[in-house]
Give the backbone structure.
Amino acid sequence: MSTTTGDGSTAPPPAGRPSTSAEAAGAPQGTVVTLSAEQVDVAVHRLPRERVRLRREIHTRQVEVTVTVRREVLRIERLPVEDGGPDGPAGPAHDAPLEITLHEERPVVAVEAVPYERVRIAVDAVPLTSRVDTTTRREVVDVTTEPAHLEHSARRPAGTPSEPPPEGRGPHEHLR
């Protein structure tokens, strides 16, 4: 194998080291093959998932409250009158009736809307994991060797199969 010098030219192999078959066969020196492989790049796109509408509803419920109410009733107390009492002697009866107004209490219902709870709306991003499966392709080097046709070697007739590859190596062995 040749070594490359700083100016880009190739120098012969170091002394004591045989040249490679590519060098001996006259293959171009310094040939570089660039291999490519696909990489997986997963991006995340934000898409609308659902719309949520917030609406307030009024639910009615029956409320029963016990209220104490009072009403006035007429109570008559009868006391014996003694002569010379505080009202003096009894005089003739008056024909004018005595009127008294009696009162009662009735519940009065007033309904008023008052705030009872504050609701705060927030959106949280919940992290989830999602598995993505895809297929990628990768280039590999496939080296195929053919026997050299030398004048002094025996020629095979056309259609004769070549020798089987050595044990454990196939004709299209991938180099990695």
